[in-house]
Amino acid sequence: MTDFATPEQTAHRTNAVREAAVAAGRDLGLEITEGKVLYELFSVVVHLAPAPVVARIPTVLPHTTTLEDLARRQQQELDVAQWLHDQGTPVIPPSPLVPRKPVQKDGLSITFWPFTDEDKSSEPDYVKNSELAADLHKALRDYPGELDFLSSADPRFVREGLERLEGQDLVDPADLARAKSEWQVLEPLVSDEAEFQKAFPGIDLQPIHGDSPPANIFASTNGPLFSDFELITKGPVEWDLGGLGPELEAAYNRGAEKNGLRTLDKDVLRFVNAVGAIRVIAYLSCADQLPAMVEFMKPFINQWRDTDPYA
Fold it and tell me: Is the pTM value of this prediction over 0.70?
């Protein structure tokens, strides 16, 4: 059995994170009277009111992620967001009111961003967002920063996460056995750039968002802004469109053609969708930290169960 965090424990964690964010902001010279929690799931986002600054603090982390690993990834995020902003790409840049680097406080690693007013007048348009993702990919092609190949796949965590799920009641044993079998095929392709290029000759690699740009476009009152580059990496553009389905893939392809970029490759999409599904299963090894993810992940696992095994 998995010992899940209770609602009381989760609330205590959120409050502790809020207090750490406020203290870190004050250490940087911000005038703060209140920390307002705006969002919490895998991260907690706190408005350091009345300063026009929000702090973002990752809280649900793989067992393989150290504070140093997290800070390095956050620095890459801050750097790429600032660079894109400087090029005129519509993004949420780092806050200009504090140094552009992660701050460690009470065992947490914190980044600071401008408070941005949200346009709540309509629901997210993921078709439009998927088309816009091609604009981001075009902008990222010239990013000069050094990035590791598919670091957002986190292959060590996936492998060890699957092992941790053995004997738990979070995943059907048949699903776990299939996931482990598929990961033996997939892991070399996400761990080694040369192996990937051998399997998918002619597929170019470039800086990519690393997560899902269509789901990470913030609807500001001044228009859509790309955000949340915490998984920035180098890889095929298909990685950013994994799991979205034919309609959104077609929307991206329209954007790619407008930008003079290649359209999505079906074989690479199948690969990234398979990797994404196994990563979802592996993340259930973190469910003790965030019990809500068990129900949240079920539709993804059910969808994967209906696909052919990756071999």
Answer: yes
